[in-house]
What does this fold into?
Amino acid sequence: MPEGSPNTPWSAARAAEIIAEGRATAGALLPLLHALQDEFGHVPDEAVPLLAAELNLSRAEVHGVLTFYHDFRRTPARGRLVKLCRAEACQARGGRTAEAYLSAALRENAGVTLEAVYCLGLCASGPAALVDGRPVARLQGERLKRLVQDLAS
Amino acid sequence: MTPRIFVPGDAAAVAVGADDVATAITSEAARRGVPVQIVRNGSRGVFELETLVEIETTTGRVGYGPIYPDDVGSLMDGGFLLGSAHPKRIGRPESLPFLARQTRLTFARCGLTDPFSLDDYRANGGLTGLEKALRMGPSQIVATIKASGLRGRGGAGFPAGIKWESVRAAANPRKYVVCNADEGDSGTFADRMLLEGDPFLLIEGMIIAGLATGAAEGFIYVRSEYPHAVVAIRKAVDIARASGLLGASAAGGVFPFDIEVRVGAGAYVCGEETALLESLEGKRGQVRAKPPLPAHAGLFGRPTLVNNVLTLAAAPFILAEGADAYASLGFGRSRGTLPVQIAGDVRNGGLFETPFGMTLAELVDDVGGGTLSGRAVRAVQVGGPLGAYFPRALFDTPLDYEAFAAKEGLIGHGGVVVFNDTVDMGQQARFALEFCAVESCGKCTPCRIGSVRGVETLDRILAGDRPEANLAVLNDLCETMALGSLCALGGLTPYPVRSALKHFAEDFGAAPHARADVPQDRSWRQ
It folds into this structure.
């Protein structure tokens, strides 16, 4: 996932290229939404009519899919993206404490977006998070503090 | 010969610094002028020891762990290239009690081999199952799977052979094999470990399923929360295609079979097979009413075999060693092995593959070694967010689909999450409903509305607002969800809620454990 890699600014021409490349696959909408988000960091409203026209769908159908899935964002993320696991196995290892600590520590940090995710498959090493797509685990004590320091720099 | 050093590339190792460890070893070796070859193997599944670095010596592999980048200098000074002593030396990894007690059929190679070397795969028993399958007809392959007693490992435990037979018998020139790798249950990571640590096993299993059912196309639907696994399985599929294992003349020119990897988009409900198919078709991941079963009208309306990663990955062993070798292990109607995932507050967390039948107490206390925090175990949730919370009084329950069902619980995908005595079961019950509200696909009313009303009602109970009347409402809601939901998300969310109410009633008084420090509004994820 190139999440966190520098995104290109929105360009209708570039979006049309991406859609043309992938439109022939069966069930193309989800892979195309991923491809657009990988390129631009989000899927702006301008992309909806382009997708609808190329895939022979209504705009409502494209909007429905775009807004159903938690992953797709319609506006760019603010700076660095931290997806912290909120699920049970991380809770059992201090996840609720990590959640409270991070949301308080990052509240004033305009350069970080903190989001919830439900399980990263790192359940024996929690609390866990994806930071710009990179997995980090054992977020307790010093390691948690170090993450906040890294995000502040 | 250049010594081979194994540094796991598994996401759980990378999450605690494995990439930095590998870099440190390379640069430290270069600085000392010592040639080394680094292999990024899968994980052995002993997560407290990650990063577990292994060195190949003349007398076998020697492990060191947990290794952080700072340890590399002292490792080199101590002569670890020869397997010498060091405070973090653990000896032969296979001798660790956690690994020695396992029966690894599906995970036999995981952590041992280079996940992207087909030669390594072959040299360690890979492709034997496929070779045997190629000498059988589809009916004989299906009969072997049936005789093995293999049941779906995704959670429902449906007999795999019957599913395979239904798709085989369906009259349609175009069929699909779909691998459900949308492993969303908290406390589970076996699919992820396999995708990253032994991906060719899944590919082999899917080719066998294609042979058996007459399908020429396969899809692997991996969740987006597993970016490492997506990269790994895509790489393995490309290697398999380049080598002729997949493609127009798959399995060495015998029949066409190819696999496409698709990525989910953060919807838990897409782990439900019909929602997964909708998602693969590019639609909202909403559950379909059954019938028709996917075996008759699945992906794009064609007959489709949908199986979990572990179900498909069990097929090569069954074909290679015979149905009896698999069926001879197990308990009751649960045959073979279950890759159990031990997680949460536990000393020895990780992947523990064992024949069905081990009790929860053995798993948590003996294998798991109790809690990591040193506190008492209060509850264990088995089977992910839809699984029941069991108190110690139920720890004599053996791992078996029927035994768990008899105690109003489920095994699900084999996740075991251990909670210590600080857990607030009122909050855990609330979380189950909150999770259902966030993840509900919205198609059926009991799940969509019941979950939201459930959170509100539980909040009143926890606040001490007419607890008896509100408990009656909550029980009604649970019953409606259990009986009236279209799929397991709404249908099984009552399991964690009711088990918490039943076994931990003391946590549902007037908020004895109220915790002001935890953000509890659902708008948090915005």
